[in-house]
Amino acid sequence: MNLSFIKKAAPWIGTVVGAAVPAAAPFIGIASKLLTSGLGKQVDPNAKSISDAISEAMASPEQLAKLKEIDNDFALQMKTLDINSTEEFEKIAAADRADARLMQEKTGSKIPAMLSISVTAGFFGLLLLLVFRALPQSNMSVVNIMLGALGTAWISVMNYFFGSSAGSARKTELLSQAEPIDGKNA
Description:
Blueprint: H1 3-9, H2 11-19, H3 25-39, H4 47-57, H5 61-80, H6 86-107, H7 111-132, H8 140-162, H9 166-177
Helix pairs in contact: 1-2, 2-6, 3-4, 3-5, 7-8
């Protein structure tokens, strides 16, 4: 998922989808409902389904205009919840991760590590199953939902232990817009 690409088309929805913290779950649900009704197709409340829907909508000028309208509606809903900018939401998401890490430091609980191992094993185990086994078509919708949920959970696990890539993505975006440095002037 190319988050910077998605954020250009739908900045608010892209920011929430990229947060990958439990606090973002209700907002992801709102975004999926708005996209489902606005685009006229089912968009599940997970990062992959939302990013796929946004990528598909970007292919058509009419759908892109509708996507901008949906993102504006989403922004209005966020503002009614006192979240007035995408930067403010990113700060909330960062604070959520910091609180989780602080709790882990203070309690020394082994549960986050066990859950992380379980999610990682489940995600890659399901991927291996799909690569090496043919599953009945009647089960594929359930398997796809489970794969999306595990993929989203795995991203959260990586963000918990290794930090968010939001800052890194922002630096990359700024660097791509900067003027090239001429070696003669350095």
